[in-house]
Protein 1
Amino acid sequence: MNKPVNCRFFYGDYFRGKNKEECRLLAANPTNQIAWKRSHCDSCPVPEILISSNSRELALEATIVRKFLRSQVEVTFAVCTRHMMELSDPRYCPECAAEQNRSAGEDA
Ligand SMILES: [Zn+2]
């Protein structure tokens, strides 16, 4: 059995011998053409994006793309739901950055 993945979109159900694993991010994208496998998590950028993004209310859309000999998860769309703003870089929302600067100034 694979270890559960430390990712908010990963879902594993091993109860009573079940071995169901799912990526809820990809399951939510009906246009994804390549079936998700647990091994896609090993090269997936999403957990790192969730940790490093300055947006705390990040909504992502992802798909699996084939690259040469392997397939991997790629983020196709990122939105800061706090500011309803599409982000070209999912790791950075300029509005969240401005808020964080402002509150940093208040603390000083
Ligand atoms: Zn934001």
Note: Residues 51 and 91 are 9 Å apart (CA to CA).
Protein 2
Amino acid sequence: MKKEMIDTTKNGIKYFYYPPWEKNMQVGLGFSSRCGGVSEDPYDELNLGYKWGDKHAAVAENRRRFLALWDKEEQDLVCGEQVHGTKITLVREKKAGALIPATDGLITTEPDIVLGAFSADCLLIYLWDPDARAIGLVHAGWRGTLGGILYYAVEAMQQRLGACPGRIQALFAPCIGSCCYEIGRDVMALAAGSYWGDKAVFYPSRKKGHAFLDLQKTNQNILVSAGMQPGNIGAGSLCTHCNPRLFYSYRRAAGQATGSHMGIIFLSER
Ligand SMILES: [Zn+2]
């Protein structure tokens, strides 16, 4: 079976999940599409991010509907500020409305804390070690990717939560594909100067000084360098930029307002 999140529709909301992780009821996870909420153009419909100027009440209602699919509420949610950095934070307790500063990766072993992250092209990565009962959720655009954030996430799960890299499983949410992710000299220069640069997967572009970056393959390489098994990594095949009916895309919006997807993961109380 292909290891990839699949879509389903519940209570009018289309979202992505992964049945093999949920079947033993140890962990719940989801990634929203844009379909099924109350936001209006250009945030239509299921915008789950407050920062783009959508009506607060609409986002709150969308979050309520999305989290209710797992019987969760906004006060269960802990999110990072997401600054395209590489910091991983260990979450030990629920703080209603918490937005942990300067953090793009969250890890925990606490049941019923819902780790949340947002994206509109960037890659969200779900991590789980079933034996250590440890989970993680990481946000990675090109900057975090080339900074090695996934290496640090696996390392933090190992050192702080007793996880074993060889046992950790990873899932990638839909993100911008290499078909659409053309980058320029700034990203190429960062890759060339980065310790993780040799893990980066680029494809040639006809535009001088440009290339297409494969976020998923690059992050797969970094996970393997952190000790993970390639067979434990489930990448996706849907491009957020290519599918405007299903997904928001920051790049497609080209500087105009758009919405955000949310990814969540939590451990169930045993
Ligand atoms: Zn594409």
Note: Residues 9 and 15 are 6 Å apart (CA to CA).
Protein 3
Amino acid sequence: MFKKSSKKFELISPDNIYYSYTGEIFYKGIKNVWNYETVTFKKSEYYCKDCNTILYNKKINLELNTEDGIKKVNNIYSCVSCKKFHIIENDLVYTYDAGEDFEKKLYEFDELKNNIETFQYVDREKDLKNK
Ligand SMILES: [Zn+2]
């Protein structure tokens, strides 16, 4: 389940970016790390304040299980260092801490078209175990 928090993710600002003469982008104090060969995850405009790493995101069209019930989600963000997935709303963030399952979940999201039943099923199983 995605847990609610009021954590804020910062947008990467022009102050953090500079370009080399070849047009290459460099980031001041922000890491651009992505160790996975995903097809659909792209670099986002946010970075994680916990580990200063750029979040990667994927446009999706899914209903996910959050602390506030099932939510329609258009965009899922991922921090590769913290091994977490985030749903970013205006003042709220819903976070799924994938831990050791991070890679598995990432590829589930990556390969996904419009069906995330697998994800919800595994999620429910875990919730039951915690009771
Ligand atoms: Zn992080």
Note: The CA atoms of residues 41 and 87 lie 14 Å apart.
Protein 4
Amino acid sequence: MTLCHIKFARPDIVKLDRQYCIHCEKRQFFVVWFEEWYGWYGTCLKCGEKFGCDEWLPRPFAPRWRQQNIEAAKKFYRRHKAND
Ligand SMILES: [Zn+2]
């Protein structure tokens, strides 16, 4: 039997914030969001690294994943702000 976890939580808070990026080793702009039960998540808009609950999230094994993460974070932010 295979268990499948499907997450449909809609983030309550989505914002731009300047935080310290442990990959860039300096403060960068992040798209951050808060999901109930899961906590804070964020994507660095400089390097594309994703963080959740103060830990690095797994990197995809795909070409141009950094740029795709940055574009996805920007799109996510714009879509959330458009629905406010
Ligand atoms: Zn970074």
Note: The chain is about 20% helix and 35% strand.
